[in-house]
Amino acid sequence: MYLKSLTLKGFKSFASATSLKFEPGICAVVGPNGSGKSNVVDALAWVMGEQGAKTLRGGKMEDVIFAGAGQRKPLGRAEVTLTIDNADGALPIEYSEVSVTRRMFRDGASEYEINGQRARLMDIQELLSDSGIGREMHVIVGQGRLAQILESRPEDRRAFIEEAAGVLKHKRRKEKAQRKLTGMQANLDRLQDLTEELKKQLKPLARQAKAAKRAATVQADLRESRLRLAGHTLSQLHLAHETHAQAFSQASELHGSLQHDFQVAQESLQEAEAALSRTQPEAQAAQRLWFDLSALSERIAATSRVANERAEHFQPTPFPGEDPASLLSRAEHAEAELGQLSTAAEIAAERLDSIREEVEERAEAAAEAEREHMAQVRAIADHREGVVRLLAAQESTEQQLQAALAESQRLHEHLAEQRRQLHAASEELELSQRDAQQHSLEPLQEAADASAVEAAAAEERLEQLRDRRGALERTISKLESRIETLEANAPKPGVEGDFAPLAKFLRAQPEAQVALSAALGAFAQAVVGDPSAHSWEDVARTVVVEQGQGEAWSLDVDLPPYASWLTDHVQVDGSVSLAVYRLLADVALCPSTDKAQALVAEDPRVRAVTNDGVLVGQGWIALGRGERTALDVAAQVDQAREELASAAEELESLSGVFAGAKQAAEESRVAQAKAQVALKEAAQRDRALQQQQEQLSSRQQVLQQQVERTQQQVVAAEERMKDLEAQKAATADRLSRVEDVEDEPSTEARDEASAALAQIRAMEMEARLNVRGAQDRVEQAKASAAGLRRKASFAQQAKQQHEREQHKRAQRAQLAKTVADLAAEIAQRTAKALEKAANKRSELQQLLEVHKAAEQKARRDVEAIRQRVERAAQQRHEAELAVGQARVRLEEAQLKLSEQTGVPAQNIIEDFAPEEDFDVEQERARLQQAERDLRSLGKINPLALEEYKALEERYEFLSTQLADVEQARKDLRGVIHDVDAKILQLFSDAWRDVEAEFPKVFATLFPGGEGRLLLTDPEDMLSTGIEVEARPPGKKVKRLSLLSGGEKSLTALAMLVAIFRARPSPFYVMDEVEAALDDVNLRRLIALFEELRQDSQLIVITHQKPTMDIANVLYGVTMRGDGVTRVISQRMSRAPEQGSSVTPLPDASH
């Protein structure tokens, strides 16, 4: 048997279908690192059933599928087919050639086939196990496997020998038998439970059958005893009915007497309530008067505070504007200057008019000279075209010059008008700004802020009062709850009746409260009353103090300064003073235990107690206190009542103050709202002024821009005039230079007229400019004077308005001062009235408390008598109910006993009435004995015999089944024992062979060295592990960890080769096992390979040339840039003397 071929499709780097044709002997797989050589070993392990992803050098099993590389896309499945030559029948299957296929998909699904037929993983493992190939895969020695062999546990090394010995299939058979045995245990437990349950049911059925025989006798005795006891019961019920009827009569008489006492007490209560109702309205009226005066006082205080603040706020302020007289003086000065400028303007205008007349005269003269000259020119033939053009140009220039002059004049006039408008806009803007300054928002804002501060202060004061009122209300509620809790949980006296706790008659100062409780001791729980009115059994449960008056007294002892008698710190009601002073006459109060002991040591008659409750006597000390006493609870209740009264009084006082603060806060809110409205209106007016100022400012800017543009146009016009004058002069010069071929007319007259006209026109232009300038100055002066007049008028109006406002502020300040003075005077009167009202309220409150106390006492008396009446009524009602119940019990007993016995009640009384010597206890004992006998028999079942027989047959059947299951378990245990014996035999034989081979192989690899295999537990051959001892030549160490890397590899190979020799396998796979060996050790290993090739097929992954030399076939593995592995096969033919030669294999493919 040997591996015949291996076909890979999509497994790791084998993207394309690749087939490796193996031959017997040594097949070497060679190639560069990373080309996919080890993937061949992984494919062999995977197709033979390997389930560990780490063993296949991956993180998960899906990693065996080609993941894609370069231009190649990932594949969806991996498939490996291993073909085995089974001509020798080594595999237990009737085929000479066996193909094993494993296929895996990307979604994790797997398929297995044997010769193209679907199979299971278990089928493949069992098929290969007979050839020594199991899950340990000891025939495949991959990279790192050698180190793993030596580093593994001894139990793991045992698995290699078991796999080679063929033990695994027997182990699986044992595991299957153990699983079946475990499953059978559940059935066995169920059968045992059923059998035990039936066995338990058989015994009661047997007892029931036996008990049925005695039932009749016991039931007869039971009936007779019941009738005799029924007669006795009816007689007793008759007697009880008569007794309860007599008690009802007595309770009715007592109830009538108490009803009369209750009516008398109610009359006293009505008198006390009438007195209380007369006093209560007067007290309530005084209380309301005090509340009203308190509220009035608070409002007056708030009014005074507001009046003072307003008086201070309305103090006079200086006028913020400019003086109107100064503005008027400036206006008058501007008007005087306007007169001078107007005169100058008139003179300039008159001069302009005279110049214009002269211009007209000279223009007419120039025109006449021109007409004469043109006539002369026309008389001469117009033979010179150039002269004509020059003259035309001169005329055109003259016209343009006249137009430019007119435009310049227009621009000067327009500029003057714009300057006037700009000046007027500036004056109007300045006036608006002054008006805005005079109507500033600051005073109104200050007033609004002041009112807001005042309102916030009033609200804060009101909130503080509200919080304080809420805190007082919560305090009162807590104190009332605390008083109720203390009274409800107070220790109750151990005796009922007209007794009161002693704590009710004592009041100690706070610092002496603990000391008083400690000094009284058990008497702190005492009650006050008349013990003779109660039985000694009731009185004995508590300490009773009799009432009696007496004067305070103490021992005739001079106490040191630090001590005082305890009675000096206690207030005692006179009714119990005699008893209390007797109890405390020898007790002194000391500040500390040391001083208390010193005082007792000085005079043993004295007992000393400290403020923290330590009581000291002669020869003894009582440290601390026990449970809380009635005296402690009473003190806590009194303290809580005092705090409650104080809180209630403060709450009443706070109510008036709260009402005044609430009204003051409301007034402050109204004032704040008014100030906010005034501020809002002023703000709107201010925004309107601001919008007006913005519009004026915008208009001023537009006018300024227009003035600037007009000035630029004036400058451009003047430059244009200069250019035209120069052009005119140039044209005239050219005409003067024209050479006339004929006599030309004289131009002297025309030239003189033109020169005179030009001169006068220049004068006219100058005069016109002077007039325009004078008119501009007049307009400016006029606008300035008018603006100053307006400003003076506005300033005068503003000043008058300011004076009126100041007058109003002075009046308001005076009014506020008057209000403040009146408020102060009224506050004094109100304080006196409030004091009187408080005194009156206190007097009426005290009187009201007296009437309340009287009413409460009368009410308590009524309540006490009412309770006694209710108790008497309850007793009468209970007696009446008892009579009725006795009658009902008698009737029910008659009916019930008649039904139970089947005998009429009258017959029971007549026939079974108890005799004088009737012993009811003896008869009851007889009845109970009969009932016990009947109960001991259990339930009488007439079908018990038939049920017992059927149950017994089922019990016998289940017992038989149980015996069969136990026999099957015994047989399975026998099978497991046989399998263990077989495993023991196989492993023992293999172990002896491997143990014998290991020293030989080790000596071959380590000449001169020693090595052996040892069992960790020779006594337990089924689970013992295997230890390896190795000592290379020249070394004394035996620990494997001290060996070098090459020595470890050779030691592991020695163990594997020993297993191979002891239990040969058809093939072995070696993956670079000689990588760490030097040449000498490599040759030794090759010698072993030569030995193994005689009986087995070797597939070797190697880089070593000596290993390649001994191979029968070489497989070259390469990988190009696309990441896909390709295989090339070569057969190596070896001649005995000439070495090896290479022959290509024709069937190599990929």
From TrEMBL:
InterPro entries assigned to the protein according to its UniProt record, in alphabetical order: P-loop_NTPase (IPR027417), RecF/RecN/SMC_N (IPR003395), SMC (IPR024704), SMC_hinge (IPR010935), SMC_hinge_sf (IPR036277), SMC_prok (IPR011890)
Entries under CDD domains matching the protein: ABC_SMC_barmotin (cd03278)
Coiled coil found in the keyword field: yes
Chain positions covered by the region annotation Disordered: 727-752
Keyword vocabulary terms for this entry: ATP-binding, Coiled coil, Cytoplasm, DNA-binding, Nucleotide-binding
UniProt binding sites for ATP: P32, N33, G34, S35, G36, K37, S38, N39
GO MF annotations in UniProt: ATP binding; ATP hydrolysis activity; DNA binding
Keyword Coiled coil included in the entry's annotation: yes
Coiled-coil stretches: 167-208, 349-489, 771-896, 920-968
Subcellular location: Cytoplasm
Pfam families, per database record: SMC_hinge (PF06470), SMC_N (PF02463)
Every SMC hinge domain range: 496-600
Domain of life (superkingdom): Bacteria
GO process terms (BP): chromosome condensation; chromosome segregation; DNA replication; sister chromatid cohesion
GO cellular component, one term: chromosome
Record text about domains: Contains large globular domains required for ATP hydrolysis at each terminus and a third globular domain forming a flexible hinge near the middle of the molecule. These domains are separated by coiled-coil structures.
Family, as annotated: Belongs to the SMC family.
Known partners and oligomeric status: Homodimer.
Function summary: Required for chromosome condensation and partitioning.
NCBIfam families: SMC_prok_B
PANTHER family: STRUCTURAL MAINTENANCE OF CHROMOSOMES PROTEIN 3 (PTHR43977)
Protein name per UniProt: Chromosome partition protein Smc
Taxonomy of the source species: Bacteria, Bacillati, Actinomycetota, Actinomycetes, Mycobacteriales
